[in-house]
């Protein structure tokens, strides 16, 4: 099981100017690291990582403050099926897939956004890329 | 060879190197396998056959079949096809064969169902009529939508590009005058040994688009170098690994095999335009292509290979080790391949209609007009679509008679509230077939015709197309 769980936070226009993430961190004393964020006056989205042990509590805390929380699916690469063509590389907006010097394909789970993106999945000629649920039974209300 | 020529010159390289090995591993659609099943009892003259629900061609006598790489499964189209059947058989898996026939006095049986592995087949030969392109286009997409092509998934507005082939490691680029590669050349094919049996179809050596026809024993191949593959919304294919040894017979060949990725140029081609002559947007070298990003106009664009460069290198290295340990012997060709053929376009006897032959002027309005004015235009011109344009005539949206009716029913007054801003469009040189496919896909009945600057040139409607067909 993953020690950290990724959650996607969506802030509406009404609450986007409030320091909600900081409040949740302070109230619960649990570290939340931000993987990716896009925020403007119309609203915002943050992809955050929280410890698996406290994920339910954190999700509830954000929801109480009016944030829409989803648990995105993550990309899983079946290395048995992958024949390292690299067709997926140019589709990844965050360069989570890259070549090593010998043209081996390496996938960086930490950088990957998961299901909010998923652009690479249907581009794989080997059908080696899947979107999978994060382990655990986190609610996707 | 490339490094040696650079550091010590051609003369030294010619003296020291006997053979240069090359390799490529990519999607090669014109591939397939011939199988012979042996006879059933009572015997059958197969008319139609399927393996794992993939229809198999029947090119010869009673029980000879050809598994085409691009034929898709009838139950799992776009996911499983002939290429996968070939890979499954090579890797030792059991497959299911179904066949039907009309029945004759000598072959009375009309139905057959059995399971097979490669060991049950008399012959199982890869027989590919176009493989191993010398180089290939770099593909990108100008359209406003993602397209799915044989060059992979291409994001809208040049957001990515793809290419194929292994550049300086590619077999034919290293022997561009076909001095050593010809009919009878022994090659690495799919992990086993095969032969060049001629030039491939569409062989176009004068434009550096040479191809090969090859044959090899599948029973001796490995699924590491033969893979079925699926291109979303395009179809299935076969990835084929080919390696060719090039004996360095003269100094000229030493020079030719020293070719570098930066010396091999190819066109960046806009696959967003579905025509035979797709627009070329510039040239790019394989060095740039392998770097992960290219420049199109003033934009930096990420680029993906569709071939595995890692496997291509492994093929060249494997072939080298085979030659070193005497398990592979070079052959000299028994016949040279043509060096002057070109790939001609198809002769067509039917005129194909394009958008510009049926488009007509669009009735337009601007964003600040009242709904009532627009309603009057619909009635006075008796049309269903009003194209919204700005002062420069550039497309801003579209309004249909249905949108106007709905606005009246809901008491809306402002045109801005009902304009459909995400408009599906066409261009004058698009074929009518492609335009009508767009209308069907998006369930709409008209397409504004625009130029590359989004300027409105006219409109075509589904009525125009039905009139043309009814003519």
Would you kindly provide a written description of the structure presented here, covering whatever features stand out?
The complex is a heterodimer of chains A (141) and B (471). Chain A has 2 domains: 67 residues, ACT domain (Alpha-Beta Plaits, 2-Layer Sandwich), CATH 3.30.70.260; 69 residues, Alpha-Beta Plaits (2-Layer Sandwich). Helices cover 13% and strands 30% of the residues of chain A. Chain A has 2 helices and 8 strands; from the N terminus they run βαββαβββββ. Chain B is an alpha+beta fold and 471 residues long. Chain B has a domain of 116 residues: CBS-domain, CATH 3.10.580. In chain B, helix 9 links the parallel strand 26 and strand 27. The chains are: A alpha+beta (141), B alpha+beta (471). At the A-B interface, loops of A face strand 2, strand 13, strand 18, strand 24 and helix 7 of B.
Topology:
The complex is a heterodimer of chains A (141) and B (471).
Chain A lengths: L3 E8 L8 H9 L4 E8 L2 E9 L3 H10 L3 E3 L3 E4 L19 E3 L5 E3 L21 E4 L9
Antiparallel strand pairs in A: 1-3, 1-4, 2-3, 5-8, 6-7
Chain B lengths: L1 H7 L1 H7 L2 E3 L2 E4 L4 E5 L11 E4 L2 E3 L7 E5 L13 H9 L4 E6 L10 E6 L6 E9 L6 E3 L6 E3 L2 E3 L5 E4 L7 H4 L7 E2 L2 E4 L2 E8 L12 E6 L8 E6 L3 E9 L1 E3 L3 H6 L8 E6 L9 E6 H6 L1 E4 L2 E7 L3 H16 L10 E2 L18 H4 L5 E2 L5 H10 L4 E5 L5 E6 H9 L22 H11 L3 E5 L5 E6 H9 L1
Parallel strand pairs in B: 10-21, 13-24, 26-27
Antiparallel strand pairs in B: 1-20, 2-19, 3-6, 3-9, 4-5, 4-7, 7-8, 9-17, 10-13, 11-12, 14-25, 15-16, 15-19, 16-17, 18-19, 21-22, 23-24, 27-28, 29-30
